[in-house]
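Problem: given the chain below (98 residues), write out its structure.
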Amino acid sequence: MAIEVEITREDSERGGRYIAKVAGFAGEGELTYRRSSPGVVVANHTGVPSSMQGQGVAGKLVERLVADARAEGFKIVPACSYVAAQRKRHPEWAELFV
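Solution.
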């Protein structure tokens, strides 16, 4: 059974984070980023609490980042090893990465 992941975004001029919450799970997952230049976002950390590991939450955070990049026209620098690994697994995202 797939879990329901609620993802919100906190954004500022310098960067921000995506926050994942799952009903019934303690804590929250996050993907943090900073803006390196106009139109470029550096994804620098993805993490989920141990209670959420193995549920696909980190992947959902990256999917949201990619969806926003597509919708808003920015490129992603995958400084986070998890984001870099997801990039390799999804060649259809290639045009969104620097």
